[in-house]
Structure of IPExxxVDY family protein:
Amino acid sequence: MALHKLLVDDFYDDTYKLIAIHCRLEDYRLAYLLNKNLDINLERKAEDIDIKYLESSYSFFEWNNETEYITWNLISNVCKKEEDSLSSTGTLFETSEKVLKTFHLISEYNRVDYFIKISDEIQNVNEKLILSKLQAIPQIITSYTVDPLKIKSKDHLIF
C-alpha cells in the first residue's frame, strides 16, 4: 500500500501586500488618518489577535472593499503588557513590582509599530501610490513594503 503525505502549506496560497509603518500614534488615530487619506473605511474588530493564548494581543482593524475584491487590515505589531516581576520569597519586605513586557507580532521587525495587509484577488493595488499617500501623512515617520515570503512568523498574519 502506498503512503501519501498531505502538506497543508501547499494549500495556503494567499497573495497579499504587506506595508510596515513606523509611527507613535494610538491605533485608533492611525486608523482614522488612513481612512481619511486613503479613502478606505477601516473598523476595529470586536476581538483582537491573540497569540499563544492571551500571552499577547494585538489590535486589529479591517475593511472589505467588496466592489474591488480587496481586504484591508491594520494590525498592531507591538503589545505592551504589565506583569508581576519575579521575586524571591522570604525577603524582609514584601513588594510586588510590576514589569512592562513588550511583545511583537512579527519579531523580525521589532521596530515596526503597525502593518497594513492588503489582500487583493485581482492584483490591482498600486503600492507606490499607497506608499506616497502614507508618507504624505505628517504623523507617520516612515513606511515601506515588506516581502511576506521572507518573514519567519508569517503564520501570525493569517486571519
Q: What stands out?
A: The chain has a mean pLDDT of 84.
